[in-house]
Amino acid sequence: MADRDLEDDLQSFFKNNPLETRLIGGSLLAYFAVAGPLFEWMWDEGTRCGVWGDDYSCQGSVWLTLAYVSMVSTVLAPGIWGGISMFVKNFTYVNDQQRGEVVWLATFGLPFAAIWATLWLYCFPHLWMLLPWGSWETNWWKIFPFIFGLSWLGLGPLIGTISTILGKFKEFAEDEKQGHEFEEDFKTKLAGSADDTMKFEPPELKSPDTTQPLTKESDEDANSSKYVFVPEQMTWNEHNERARAMGGHLVSITSAEENEEITRISGGEPVWIGGIRKGSGNGPGADHWYWDDGRSWSYTNWYPGEPNNYGGGENRVHLGLQAPGTWNDVGEGWRGPAVYQIPEAASTESNPPQFTSILGDMDIHEKYKE
Asked: Shortest CA distance to 205 belongs to which of 173, 184, 174, 227?
C-alpha cells in the first residue's frame, strides 16, 4: 500500500510539474556530459596550479577553468529554473508575476555569479601574479588584496543574488502566513454565521458531464440552484468529487453579475471555479477553455497577463488571487476553498461539506471586504 501511495504521489508530482521535471532531468544529463571525460580535462588543466601552485606558469591554463565553469553554469541554468519554479509553487498566495521574478533571478543570477566569482577570485589573480601564493614566508601579503578587494568584488554578485532570493522567499512566507491566518479567522467567523445559502436563478444550466467540453445545446436546461461556499483546502478534483456527491458541480460564471456574486460569496478568498483548459494551448477564450457543467464560455474576467499557463501545467481556474473578482489559471493540485453550484432539489445530507454557508452574517463580509 505504501508503494502504491508513493507511486500515486510521484505521478501527481510529475503531472503538476511537467515542464520543471523535464528541465531538471535534461539539465542533469547535460551536466554529466559536460563534467564527464569529454571536458573534465579542462578543469584538471586549469586548476592544477591551485592556490599554492607549482613551478610552472598557470596564466594561460586558468582560462580553461573559466570556460569549464561557464559551460557547467549554462547547462545547470534550466535545472535551476525548474527547481525554483517547483519551490515557489508552494506559495499559494503569491501571484505569477512575483513567482516569475524570483525564478528568473535565480536562473540567470546564480550562473552569472559563479562565472564572475571564478574570473575575479581565480583567473585574474593568476594573471596578476597574486596566485599561486608560493611560500607563506614571502607571500603572506597577498592575502590582503583578496580580503579587502577581490573577495568583495568576486563574491558580491553571488552574495547579492542569494540574499535577494532569500528575501523574496521571506516575503512569500509572510504572505502565506497572513493568508492562512486570514483563512482560519474567516472560517471561525463563518462557522458562527447563518447557515442560509444564497439562491439564484442561473440563466443556463444542465446536468454535468466531465468527460469533455459540451456544446451550447447543454445550456438550455435551466434549474433553480444555489451557491455554496466551501472553505476546506482541497484540490480541484477533490472539490469536484464533493460537489458531484451533493448533486452539483463547481460553479460556472457566464456574466459579470454572477462573477460579482461569487466574489461576494467567497469573502475575498481565492476559490476554485469550474473552468477547465482544453488541451495544452493558451488563450482566454472558448477555444482554450470550457465549463465543467457545459455552460457556454461566454464571459471572462482574467487578471492582466492571465491565463499564461505558467510552467505548462495550469489547467484549471480559480478566482480572486491577484485581485477580487479576477481569474487566474493554476494547476489542479493547488489546494484552496471553492464555490459549488447545487440544484435546489438536490439533497446535501449524504455528504455535506464541513461548512455550508455563504456569509449570512453581513458584518463578517463587510469586515473582510475592506
From this structure: 227
